[in-house]
């Protein structure tokens, strides 16, 4: 479960910050390797494509010489800042060439530039950064260099200094932004299960990005190598449309030392297969780590802990941050031991691959059978109380805020149960705007912890059989917000609100099913409805659906549900992403006006819009759509923009927005957690201003 409270200890080794407390070695003795909550770091290793022959003394001698040279280099890096190292101290014959770091503008030897850049957080996407604790503890790096507004910590042994939290918050407030910190206590161990908490972590990143384009997110663990890298790879797969292989390559291109452990790569493979409906992942841990000769340069690192100080002892305040208290490692003096690698025969490898394919094939068939069953069911009326005592079975599905549940009730009816998190109010307002525009989106009714039906749902859904073995904890997490608390009458909950979302017996606008639909005669009318949906997205800044020229992203076509054998489209997971006052807002409003004008007058944005949609459908569905179908899409887009302009002029939109405000206060007024209620007025004002720009662009005045 996500942990946003301060843990019992914070890391003692810090990177360069504002210079306060530098040089100190204070703090209590570090925990031992066997102490609970301690993650022993993995040994430093060299990786070679071919293992040296056990009997080849000359080959081993050459390798040891390389190790000694690397050891001398490591000793220098331990004793000095990288930018102060003189390459000629390692190799007297070397030519010294100095280059300037684009991040901090310090000059370093060109030979050490990569090491220097790895000491910074790495820019994976223009707004997404990956790093280690030294980056989150560096106030200059957090503020003026990267403008971080959200931090996701995925290391259980680390936390953020209160001093850094205060400095970053103050800096962002001057920019009209805030600062949000969230922690998922993952361990860097082979038995760590990332997949249970992964969807919620990815939602945190994505909601931060989509709520304001100025938001910058830092994902970190201790070194920025394995745990945080795995989360970032998962984000690239889920929200950037990359395969696991492509995401892994992109990760290494941006941060060369990033190296998710083999067990995490295998979990990411399962994640990719579930998300894309694949039988075999595009990359496996065995493939990445195959052929490496792992050489322990320091066996003692397995038991060398990260020193820590208790929270509340003054650590983190001005002048009291401890510096790293670990003793310098003499890399050149360490004994090098080679792990024996047992070669795998070609026949054995092929047999294992065939076994994996067969296992994946059976899993895919089982999944197809499950979805066929659910698509045979009909939707419940979520507007009335539901008979939760008749719950027959439950299926956990990825998506939404930490996943959703499909619950089958008597009478072959089904309903979706979705946790209500940070974007709950934004989704509610979006639904009311859609209603004013006559755009079809999935309906939703929110249950509060204080309602009797909430308890009936929680008790009966947790008792119902789970369709996929092992998903019991996922079901419990969605319903209660926590795991390991028991079920039935013994359950406890940190969840305040649950959304009952209309069940849609269809499929997303992705994959082979969508490809078949786009080949039907009904395709033009389907895309016309998608066009109306895009008009809604433009006025609420909902960039996570169809890629439009308004945004620089690839969209997410799974948020378009296709029903009735391809005849109708329904929107899901839309939200108002209000932009606060400033240049970002002014720029977006100008884009909306220009976009509306181009749609009406067939301006430059039209071809760009068609091209974006054509590319998205080709990439996600493997389908080439006709010019006629694209023309129907543009027709629907214009109709949607005209509908919202008319709703504004007639007063229908204002009534819907006022109704949304009243419902939001009534439903979420008792919320102890952040569901977006404090941003309600800014959301409503944002919609009114974007609609005014649409009216101006269409020629109807502001």
Number of helices: 21
Q: Any idea what the CATH architecture of the largest domain is?
A: Alpha-Beta Complex
Overall pLDDT score: 80
Classify the secondary structure makeup into a structural class: alpha+beta
Query: CATH homologous superfamily of the largest domain - what is it?
Result: Protein tyrosine phosphatase superfamily
Bin the strand percentage: 5-15%
> How many strand segments?
21
Q: Which ranges are low-confidence, i.e. pLDDT below 50, for 5 or more consecutive residues? A: 1-57, 76-80, 293-341, 485-489
Task: Please tell me what the overall shape is.
Answer: globular
Quickly name the level 1 CATH class of the largest domain.
Answer: Alpha Beta
> What is the percent of helical residues?
40-55%
CATH topology of the largest domain: Protein-Tyrosine Phosphatase, Chain A
Q: Distance between the terminal alpha carbons, to the nearest Å?
A: 47 Å
Main sheet?
A: 6 strands, mixed
What count of domains describes the coordinates? 3
Radius of gyration: 27 Å
GO cellular component, one term: cytoplasm
Enzyme class: hydrolase
GO biological process, one term: negative regulation of MAPK cascade
Family: Belongs to the protein-tyrosine phosphatase family. Non-receptor class dual specificity subfamily.
């Amino acid at each position: 479960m996500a942990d946003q409270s301060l843990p019992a200890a914070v890391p003692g080794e810090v990177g360069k910050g504002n210079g306060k407390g530098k040089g100190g070695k204070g703090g209590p003795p570090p925990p031992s390797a066997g102490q609970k909550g301690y993650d022993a770091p993995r040994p430093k290793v060299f990786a070679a494509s071919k293992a040296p022959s056990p009997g080849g003394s000359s080959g081993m001698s050459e390798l040891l010489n390389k190790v000694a040279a690397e050891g001398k280099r490591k000793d220098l890096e331990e004793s000095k800042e990288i930018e102060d190292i003189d390459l000629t101290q390692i190799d007297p014959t070397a030519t010294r060439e100095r280059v300037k770091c684009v991040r901090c503008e310090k000059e370093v030897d060109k030979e050490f530039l990569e090491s220097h850049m790895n000491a910074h957080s790495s820019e994976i996407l223009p707004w997404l950064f990956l790093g280690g604790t030294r980056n989150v503890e560096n106030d200059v790096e957090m503020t003026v260099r990267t403008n971080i507004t959200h931090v996701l910590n995925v290391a259980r042994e680390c936390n953020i200094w209160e001093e850094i939290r205060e400095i970053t918050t103050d800096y962002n407030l001057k920019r009209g932004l805030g600062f949000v910190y969230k922690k998922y206590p993952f361990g860097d161990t082979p038995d760590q299960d990332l997949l249970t908490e992964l969807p919620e972590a990815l939602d945190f990143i994505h909601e931060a990005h989509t709520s304001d384009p100025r938001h910058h997110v830092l994902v970190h663990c201790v070194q920025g190598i394995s745990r945080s890298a795995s989360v970032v790879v998962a984000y690239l797969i889920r929200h950037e449309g990359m395969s696991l292989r492509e995401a892994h390559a992109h990760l290494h291109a941006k941060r060369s030392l990033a190296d998710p452990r083999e067990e995490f790569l295998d979990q990411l493979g399962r994640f990719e297969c579930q998300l894309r409906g694949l039988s075999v992942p595009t990359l496996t841990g065995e493939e990445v780590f195959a052929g490496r000769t792992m050489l322990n340069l320091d066996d003692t690192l397995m038991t060398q802990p990260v020193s820590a100080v208790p929270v509340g002892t003054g650590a983190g305040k001005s002048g009291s941050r401890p510096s790293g208290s670990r003793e310098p490692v003499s890399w050149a003096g360490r004994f090098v031991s080679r792990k024996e690698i047992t070669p795998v025969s070609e026949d054995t490898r092929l047999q294992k691959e065939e076994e994996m394919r067969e296992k994946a094939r059976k899993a895919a068939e089982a999944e197809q059978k499950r979805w066929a069953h659910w698509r045979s069911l009909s939707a419940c009326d979520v507007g009335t109380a539901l008979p939760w005592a008749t719950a027959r079975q439950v299926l956990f599905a990825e998506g939404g805020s930490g996943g959703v549940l499909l619950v089958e009730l008597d009478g072959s009816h089904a309903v979706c149960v979705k946790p209500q998190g940070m974007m709950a109010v934004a989704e509610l307002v979006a639904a009311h705007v859609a209603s004013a525009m006559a755009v079809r989106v999935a309906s939703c009714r929110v249950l509060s912890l204080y309602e009797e039906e909430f308890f009936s749902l929680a008790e009966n859904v947790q008792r119902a059989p789970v369709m996929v073995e092992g998903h019991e904890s996922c079901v419990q997490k969605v319903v209660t917000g926590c795991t390991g608390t028991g079920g039935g009458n013994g359950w406890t909950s940190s969840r305040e609100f649950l959304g009952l979302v209309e069940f849609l017996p269809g499929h997303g606008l992705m994959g082979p099913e969508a490809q078949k639909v786009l080949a039907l005669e009904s395709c033009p009318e389907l895309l016309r409805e998608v066009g109306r949906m895009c008009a809604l997205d433009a006025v609420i800044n909902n960039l996570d659906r169809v890629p439009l020229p308004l945004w620089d992203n690839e969209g997410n076509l799974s948020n378009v549900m296709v029903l009735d054998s391809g005849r109708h489209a329904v929107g899901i997971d839309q939200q108002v992403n209000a932009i606060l006052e400033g240049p970002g807002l002014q720029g977006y409003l100008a884009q909306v006006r220009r976009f509306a004008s181009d749609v009406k007058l067939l301006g430059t944005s039209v071809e760009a819009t068609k091209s974006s949609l054509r590319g998205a459908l080709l990439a996600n569905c493997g389908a080439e759509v006709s010019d006629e179908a694209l023309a129907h899409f543009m027709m629907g887009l214009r109709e949607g923009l005209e509908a919202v302009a008319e709703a504004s002029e007639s007063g229908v939109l204002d009534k819907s927005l006022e109704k949304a405000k009243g419902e939001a206060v009534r439903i979420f007024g008792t919320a102890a957690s952040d569901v977006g209620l404090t941003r309600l007025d800014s959301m409503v004002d944002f919609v009114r201003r974007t609609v005014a720009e649409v009216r101006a662009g269409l020629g109807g005045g502001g």
